[in-house]
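pls read this stuff:
=====
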Amino acid sequence: DRALASGLPEASAGFPLSQDQGPVHGVVIYRAVRPALTDSPSTAPLGLAFVALRPGLLLDKVRDHPERGSTPLRYCLTDLDPGQQAQPLAGDPGCGRLDEGHLQMSRRLAYAGRQWSLRVYTQQALQTGASAAGLAFAIAGLLCIALLGMLLLSISGRAARVAELVRQRTAQLQ
């Protein structure tokens, strides 16, 4: 309902996925589909598009890239929306209850109408004298990849609208 009313992408609350073993959560992103060249919420939608995401799988792929190998960094993605208990969407079991002994960095993210918290931390103590620069680069990398994905989604939608406009104008000229 919110996606139809606002015309913006809206994410569902996290929910456990039954087909996977272990505590795996997913979210669904909804967006109203409107006729080409009109993104106004007042235009009647043609329907609703959605995609189901497994944030844990996506973040695992970023963290354990085959060219870099595995890293000692861990992550915890938590849904902070009011009206519900803070629910981990991705990360190790119990990652939402980390003590202050872990070296960690946390950022709040507004994504598709929800408030999420991304925490990157280490399970082992870093060597003496190590700075938090590596952790900062890891957070920045994860955020940049997420923003790049959102940018690519918006650009591909705009390219489709421009292609439809070119097709319509070409048809008018004939």
Remarks:
- The first strand starts at residue 10 and ends at 11.
